[in-house]
Amino acid sequence: MKELITNLKGDKVIWAFVALLALFSFMPVFSASSNLAYMRHGSGNAFTYLLKHGIQIFVGFFIIYKIHKIPYHYFKTISWIMLPVVWILLAYTLMKGTVIDGANASRWIQIPFVGITFQTSTLASIVLYVYVARYLSKKRETPVTFQSSLIELWLPVFITLILILPANFSTAALIFSMVIMITFIGKYPLKYIGVILAAGIAGLTFFILVAKAFPDAFPNRVDTWMKRIDNFASDKPDEDVYQIEKAKIAIASGGIYGLGPGKSVQKNFLPQSSSDFIYAIIVEEYGLIGAFSVLAMYLLLLFRFVIAAHKSPTLFAKLVVVGLGFPIIFQAMTNMAVAVELFPVTGQTLPLISSGGSSIWMTCIALGIILSVTRKEEEIAQDEAEKEKREIALQKLIDKQLQEDEEEEKINENEDFSIEDKANPLEPILKKN
């Protein structure tokens, strides 16, 4: 174990928080999965789901370990190559996406032969964030013009968003918000950001109008968005309202200390209790103490991302840490906000805690890239420390040599003086005569 830990490079605090969140996830996932086990298999034995979650976490950490060994600047080229690939995957997902448990069409694709579903928008977001960081770091030395950035930067962004938007508005909105944040931190001109925001709002409005006018022309979930927003504002009876009501009952039942691990009642009635609404189960079983502990871990992880970005050696590294780290925290906050009815139902999972292989693995890819950046920081710090040690050792050798030279000079002076005294022993007698 000690040897394994020594092989882990990068920010050890980030490693620690990721490990804590992953280890904690086993308890609420095991508890919340009993509902799924009963519905699908007729028994409440959730061991299969626990084992599956454990394998997903193990594979996720293997992904982090392998990716954090790759020099982070390699991802500049990888993002440029992968962007057309994710466009193809997004288009395929939009047209041939899999329906999961009768809901959320066109978000997932089925991986052949292994039976694993994969949400392509999460991979697209990672690739896009790195691509935006690459562009902003490349244009750092030259003035940015709106015409050139429109083709090189915003066209890829809007192509990606257009392919995600019809099936997943919340993810498209999250990606667009994070891209705007990255460009702001990357010192992209504010007047151009304002134009892009206006264009984004206008494009969304146009898309909604077209989807309303031609509902059968292409697959979209505009009616679902509008219904959720309307229900959020008016509290009309609906499946989403039912989910929120059960989540609020779970949160209210938790109190300060909670009902105890595995003793949730609402997990038997709350749909998606092990994924989208797992935070409500955490509050019910672990109370406000558990709720604030989870929140604190995400906030501390955010603080560590800020430190890592500040220490990053290049602009690209800073933007990568911000672009990949902040969405993880923002997604977590969105999931918690939905559970307490601060946001409409969005379908965003709780990173590293909710069950679901693709969401865990995509989060692990992002964390691996961040740790690759901090690994470089660590190597630079070690090089500087070794350089400082060498300078100190060299200075000690110089000081020692100078001291030895001084001592030798003193010895020589003393020897010269004694020789002069002994050179003429008869000199006093000669002087007397």
UniProtKB/TrEMBL annotation:
Residues 405-433 are annotated as: Disordered. GO terms for molecular function: lipid-linked peptidoglycan transporter activity; peptidoglycan glycosyltransferase activity. GO terms for biological process: cell division; peptidoglycan biosynthetic process; regulation of cell shape. Pfam families: FTSW_RODA_SPOVE. Keywords: Cell cycle, Cell division, Cell shape, Coiled coil, Glycosyltransferase, Membrane, Peptidoglycan synthesis, Transferase, Transmembrane, Transmembrane helix. It catalyses: [GlcNAc-(1->4)-Mur2Ac(oyl-L-Ala-gamma-D-Glu-L-Lys-D-Ala-D-Ala)](n)-di-trans,octa-cis-undecaprenyl diphosphate + beta-D-GlcNAc-(1->4)-Mur2Ac(oyl-L-Ala-gamma-D-Glu-L-Lys-D-Ala-D-Ala)-di-trans,octa-cis-undecaprenyl diphosphate = [GlcNAc-(1->4)-Mur2Ac(oyl-L-Ala-gamma-D-Glu-L-Lys-D-Ala-D-Ala)](n+1)-di-trans,octa-cis-undecaprenyl diphosphate + di-trans,octa-cis-undecaprenyl diphosphate + H(+). Belongs to the SEDS family. FtsW subfamily. This is Probable peptidoglycan glycosyltransferase FtsW. It comes from Flavobacterium dankookense.
